[in-house]
Amino acid sequence: MSERQIQIFNDSFWPLLKAGVLYTIPLSLISFALGLLLAVLTAMVRLYSWQVFRLIGGFYVWIIRGTPLLVQLFIIFYGLPMVGIVISPFVSAVIGFSLSVGAYGSEIVRAAIISIHKGQWEAAYSLGMTRLQALRRIILPQAARVSVPPLGNSFISLVKDTSLAAIITYVEMFRQAQQIVARTYEPLLLYCEAAIIYLFFSTLLSVLQNVSERRLSRYSAS
């Protein structure tokens, strides 16, 4: 690299990292938390609710999984104003990412619940528990442990997917990189630098995921 490129790299590193810590990570956490609540609710509806609600839940999952996330963000931020619904970039991003996490996460949660042996239900009923009590005290805790690895992978993917928020003008890390590129005319350098920071975040989250999985495995074994 030339001396100018080294200077640009050094000058842009902290603004990019700051944008990642202050905007990318909070956006990921909020979207994942809301999406996880939606995932559990959708899974419960599709497994144990009336048929009409099961169809609604299935339709929601079908729509979200069958259309690109980029298109969904465009509809929310650029399309809804055409019918009088104007939403800020941040809220639009949260809605889009939460709906995505909810749809994909609901399949993870649903599969985890189904994987619990029916003997667990029978044991709970033999103790006098109702269906709701068995689900809350016996089934969901076990399903949660089964769901941790795939949900952890979903969160790591979400952190990377937040770069799509740049197209709806939300100034997260990738949008910050685009703005610096517009001033310096160094796209390769800046986008590689942003990729390095995304890689750092993903690696850190992967380590935390591995630690949590080991702890849950010890708990399960006990």
From TrEMBL:
Segments forming a coiled coil: none
ABC transmembrane type-1 domain location: 21-209
Principal location listed in the UniProt entry: membrane
Membrane topology: Multi-pass membrane protein
Parts of the chain that traverse the membrane: 20-47, 59-80, 86-105, 188-208
Domain of life: Bacteria
A Pfam family the protein falls into: BPD_transp_1
Entry keywords, A to Z: Amino-acid transport, Cell membrane, Membrane, Transmembrane, Transmembrane helix, Transport
Signal peptide stretch: none
Location(s) in or outside the cell: Cell membrane
Claim: DNA-binding is one of the keywords in the record: no
Matching PROSITE patterns: ABC_TM1
PANTHER family: L-CYSTINE TRANSPORT SYSTEM PERMEASE PROTEIN TCYL (PTHR30614:SF0), MEMBRANE COMPONENT OF AMINO ACID ABC TRANSPORTER (PTHR30614)
Family statement: Belongs to the binding-protein-dependent transport system permease family.
Record's protein name: Amino acid ABC transporter permease
Organism: Cohnella yongneupensis
